[in-house]
């Protein structure tokens, strides 16, 4: 155990797969009670089963982060089950369609913005209420290198830039309440999302990987390492940051 998160409760959204799945497992190994939230039930419950068979504590809550009633129920379940919400990794996201801006459909725009941006706002809205009531907490939102530069589709880039804006607003508004809020900006990470993109357009993913000076994809574990550190007391003076974990992509 690198960080002592015993007696803390962590919510992870998009925890049935990829980065969120890894973060949920890591929080559990550090001793936290974990709320595994995702829109897909079977895979989400499987993540809980794996955490429990590893000796950890977790609960699955079927949650669509774009639905306020779901998000409120997710936070309520955390409080009813474990007594508080101390940590949150607001990570659920979709890639959407990658058409040029003028060819984007309104449906694709709305879907990506609803999940990637409104979803992060809704999660923070309800998490912050609980954190303030219980004396503080730490939140990490998943943005992307697409939150820093135009590395992706139109609504995706807009949503991930928006996540950084929300992160800064929340960090400054809730610092006095002892809540720290940061964002991670992953580069290309080997998950189902990237596998889907590679199937649709193998050259584009290979191109991104070549643009990462470390010359490979990152792993979900490498993102979880940053998220868990940002949520731990080791990062007690870090708030409002946009933290690239990108193999050097943003350094160029
Ligand atoms: P993934 O596709 O493996 O996992 C995403 C999870 O989010 C899935 O379990 C999915 O069911 C869940 N999800 C989708 N819509 C949801 C909703 N409305 N409510 C709740 N859960 C929902 O993808 P990955 O790569 O693990 O992505 C996680 C986050 O990391 C996303 O926000 C993504 O934009 C971001 N990211 C990923 C990068 C990569 O290269 N894989 C790079 C930069 C950012």
Could you give a short description of this structure?
This protein has about 250 residues and is α/β, with parallel strands linked by helices.
- Taken from the alpha-carbon principal axes, the silhouette is globular
Bound molecules: 1,4-dihydronicotinamide adenine dinucleotide
Alpha carbon gyration radius: 17 Å
CATH architecture: 3-Layer(aba) Sandwich
Q: Give the domain tally.
A: 1
Terminal Cα separation, in Å? 35 Å
Describe the structure using short key phrases.
seven-stranded parallel beta sheet; 252 residues; binds 1,4-dihydronicotinamide adenine dinucleotide; Rossmann fold; single chain; alpha/beta
Structure write-up:
The chain is of the alpha/beta class. The protein has one domain: Rossmann fold, CATH 3.40.50. It is 47% helix and 15% strand. The protein has eight helices and seven strands, in the order E-H-E-H-E-H-E-H-E-H-E-H-H-H-E. The protein has a seven-stranded parallel beta sheet, sandwiched between helices. Strand 2 (33-38), helix 2 and strand 3 (57-62) form a beta-alpha-beta unit. Helix 1 (18-29) packs across helix 8. The longest helix has 28 residues, at 106-133. The protein starts with 8 loop residues before the first strand and ends in a 7-residue tail after the last strand. The model has no long low-confidence stretch (mean pLDDT 97). Residues 13-14, 16-20, 38-40, 63-66, 91-94, 115, 142, 144, 186, 188-189, 191-194 line the site of 1,4-dihydronicotinamide adenine dinucleotide.
């Amino acid at each position: 155990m690198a960080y002592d998160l015993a007696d803390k409760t962590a919510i992870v959204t998009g925890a049935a797969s990829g980065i969120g799945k890894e973060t949920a497992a890591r929080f559990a190994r550090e001793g936290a009670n974990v709320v595994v939230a995702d829109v897909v039930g079977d895979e989400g419950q499987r993540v809980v089963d794996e955490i429990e068979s590893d000796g950890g504590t977790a609960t699955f809550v079927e949650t669509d982060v774009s639905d306020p009633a779901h998000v409120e129920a997710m936070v309520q379940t955390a409080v009813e089950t474990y007594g508080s919400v101390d940590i949150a990794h607001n990570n659920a996201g979709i890639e959407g369609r990658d058409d040029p801006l003028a060819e984007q459909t309104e449906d694709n725009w709305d879907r990506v913005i609803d999940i990637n941006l409104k979803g992060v706002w809704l999660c923070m809205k309800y998490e912050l209420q609980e954190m303030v009531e219980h004396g503080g907490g730490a939140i990490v939102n998943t943005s992307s290198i697409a939150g820093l530069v135009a590395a992706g589709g139109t609504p995706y880039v807009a949503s991930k830039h928006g996540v950084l804006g929300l992160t800064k607003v929340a960090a400054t508004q809730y610092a006095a309440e002892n809540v720290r809020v940061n964002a991670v900006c992953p580069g290309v990470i080997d998950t189902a999302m990237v596998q889907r993109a590679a199937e649709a357009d193998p050259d584009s993913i290979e191109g991104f990987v070549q643009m990462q000076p470390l010359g490979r994809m990152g792993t979900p574990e490498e993102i979880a390492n940053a998220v868990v550190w940002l949520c731990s007391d080791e990062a007690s003076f870090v708030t409002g940051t946009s933290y690239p974990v990108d193999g050097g992509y943003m350094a160029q």
